[in-house]
Structures are given as C-alpha cells and as structure tokens.
Design brief:
The structure is a homotetramer. By secondary structure, chain A is mainly alpha-helical. Chain A contains five helices and two strands. Chain A is elongated. The structure holds a DNA duplex (15 and 15 nucleotides).
Chain lengths: ~130, ~130, ~130, ~130
DNA sequence: GTGGTCTAGACCACC
DNA sequence: GTGGTCTAGACCACG
C-alpha cells in the first residue's frame, strides 16, 4: 500500500492520511470509481486506531473527494482528481511563499535564499543517490 | 514597535513573539545590553495576554538570549546576536528542506519545484515594488 | 417496471423498494393476488444486490403486505391495499408534521411557512408543465 | 441554555447540536464574536460525551461558523449569521420539496396535499394553545 | 463484510 | 481553564 505515517512529526495522523490519499488521487494511483482501502484494513496496515482512519475518510467526504457506497465502502468521486491536484499545488505554493516571506523578513537577500534553496536540492539529490 | 502577531495562522502566539524578538536581535534592531519592552507594555501593544509575553520571555531566557536585570527589566545578552543568526539560518534551512521534501513526495520534478520557487520570488518582488 | 432507486439520497435501498411496492399497491398498480417480480429479476432491473431486494420483501411479509406461495413467488395479500393506503397517509402526515415543527422551531411564522409551501407547489407545477 | 437533544429520534447527536447552534446564530441568540459554551460545559448540560460536542464544534469550524481562539474557546465568526440563515432556508425548502414530491408521487392531488398541510397547522396551533 | 455513531478516558499545547 | 488528537471498544444499519 502507498500510505505511511509518522506519529512523531507533529502533523496529526488523520491529516497525514488525508494528504496521502489526496496525493494518490492526484497522481491517479487511485482513480475515480475505485474503492479506497476499508477503514479497518488501512488502520491495520498503519497500526493506527480505526477511528483515526475513519476521521480522515470522513473529512475527505466533506471535501467531496470520497463518497460512500452503502455497505460496500468509499469510492473516489469523479471530480476528485482535479480537486486534489489543485490542492497539492496551492498547498505547496503556500508553503513556499511563507518560507520565503519569512526569509526576507529575517533580512536575507534573494541571492542568499536562492543559495540555500539550491544547497538543499543538492543535499536531497545526494541522499537520493545513496538510497 | 517591531513586533506583530497573527492569532489565526496556527503558530503559537508565544512562538511568534520569540521569533520576532530573535529576528530583531539577529538584525541588530535591538542590541546586546538594550532592554526589551516590559511584559505589560508589549502585551498591551499586541493586545495579548501578559502570560503569553511572559512565556516568550521565559523561554528566551532559557535559551540565553535575554537575561534579567533585577528591578529593571530584561536585556539582550552579549552572545545573543550570534545565536539568533544561527537560529535563523537553521530554522529556514529546516523549513526549506521540509517544503522541498514534500514537493518531491507529491511527484514534482526539481524543475517544477524551481519554477514555483522562482514564480514566488517574482510575485513577492512585484508586491514589494507596488508597496 | 414501476420501481427505481437512488443510492445517493441517504434512504436505505431496501426502504425505498418497500415504499415503492407499497405505493404501487396503494394505487392498485399491483393488485391482491398478483405476484411481485422475483428477487433476482427485480435485483437485476435495479442493479442492486439481491440481498437488498430480499430484505425488502422479507419486511413486507412481516407487515402482511406480501405472502409466499410455495414454489411460485410472493403475492400481494387481500388486506394489503387498505393497509398501504393508511401507511401512505400516516407516513406523509408524519413528514409534513416534522418539517413544519422544525420550521416553527427555527423561528418562522405560519405565513412564512405557507409562503414557502406554495412557492414549492408553484415550482413543481411548473416543472411538470415543462416535462 | 438553548440546546437540547433527543437520543431517540434517529438524527445523530452531533448533528442535532450543530443545527441548534446554527439556529441560535440565525436568530442572533448568539452573536458574532460571542463564545459558544465550552465543550465540557455543554457536554455536561446535555449529559453527552465531550467528544460528541467537540465533533459538532469541529464541523461548525469547517463550515466557517465558529473559529477557535486558542486557549480561550470558540467564537462565532462574522459571516456566520448570514450563512446560518441561508442554511436554515435551504434546509427547510429542501425538506418541504421532498415531502411534496413524495406526496405527488403517491398519487395525491395538490388539493389533498394542501388539506393535509392545513390540518397539520391546525393541530400544531391547537397544541401550542394548550401549552 | 462495510461505514457511522457514541462513550470513556488519556495526553498535549495554549492562555 | 480552553480545544485538539488519539486510543479502545461498543453498537447499529446496510449489503
């Protein structure tokens, strides 16, 4: 399965689950009409309480990403792909913007920011090669 | 005054205050030996609970950024500037790294990330010009 | 066939099937002594799980609307028409009462309620004319 | 307090709580900027689990009716009144429409429906007088 | 088997 | 004191 969570990183578990489902939809790993794993199944895989998965799924329903098929499971809605992609975009744009605004506010020049940015690309790239 | 807080952005108020004090020190807007505003004064300015300011100051003391001068107030310590600058660096590096890790995880290529990055620089630059 | 179901409207499928059978009996579209469609046949038509149709039929038997004819199928009972009509009446009365109680509770006057009521008649009337 | 729930009527408790808060906002019994009762307090009054109240409040936040004031409580948002009134309207309209559509579907004429409708007004009016 | 709701009780950060 | 999150375990309706 494509989902994994980290109970240490400060982000709520149900939130991590939501994001990963959204990313899976955005990348069409799960497609409209497909069923997501059942609450109990996913909870078992992640060794997380079923309520936590249920909450993630519930909120995805309220965002019209999932819809219930009574007695059967939850399926990805037709319009979900588009919405998940937009979400991903705006989420990342938002975070990039905030980190850069903060950088500027703390007195760094654009060039210094660019430098840190490229340095981090280098680091992540290197780590990926080792893996 | 150089501090302002936003109770809506999810970051704890005392944390926002800490950061801004640190940034002010890093950029030498407040210098070692200077007094920071009193708890009550700053709380009044920000219309924030005095406990919140007190907590920010308390934690800044435990990080050896501020030190109490009995009967007078809190002053910036001699080594604070260096420490605040390092803090700022590592904080930003951390955030840049996390946003890029997330971008990669969501399936974007380095070039797409770079593109969003530069686009945001452009946007912020433009806004600055208008202001 | 006279039955159709909507898996999105929150009402249980077996319940929708029950109601529609009852309405068909109340309006004498199916008469006492007639057989209702077989479980498999109706399930096929509605593209619904046979268990669901079976449950609807089972409950209709317990309400003495249908009775089994061994080796043949289920037929409408003699007293069914009367019972279905009463059912329909009381069901609708119940719903009308509940919606109006709720309207009052939310602070609307009788006249405002009447107005909404007549407006909806107008809307439905208009739609019927177009069809 | 203005809220009361009925664990027997089939509607989820958290849903009943949501509606009543909305109605209270729509009728300006609670105004923008006011705090709603704390989770624990309301739970105590209704003799309901705090989680249930928390869930109602959480969903009201996602509908932008409430917003958290960290460490203080939940307050009614500025735009809440308008939204709650629209909600109430559309909820009732929806229910009136559905009950009438069902009435028609079951073969009643508009006049018969009107008759039942007025009869119910009469009944509720009478009951109110007795109270 | 599926999801939905509710209870009970715990821990956390924030004010 | 406040809300937010999570676990554990129960019961229900539906297919």
């Amino acid at each position: 399965m494509f989902v994994h969570v980290d109970s240490q990183n400060g982000i709520a578990l149900y939130e991590q689950i939501m994001r990963q489902i959204k990313f899976a939809v955005a990348s069409e790993a799960i497609q409209p009409g497909n069923l997501v794993p059942s609450v109990r199944e996913l909870a078992g895989e992640l060794t997380v309480n079923p309520n936590t998965v249920a909450r993630a799924y519930r909120e995805l329903q309220s965002e019209d990403i999932l819809q219930p098929i009574r007695g059967t499971g939850l399926e990805v809605t037709p319009g979900a792909v588009k919405r998940c992609r937009e979400d991903r975009q705006s989420l990342l744009r938002e975070r990039i913007r905030s980190v850069m605004a903060e950088s500027r506010q703390s007195g760094l020049s654009w060039d210094e920011i660019r430098e840190m940015f490229e340095a981090e690309i280098g680091r992540l790239e290197a780590r990926k090669d080792r893996t």
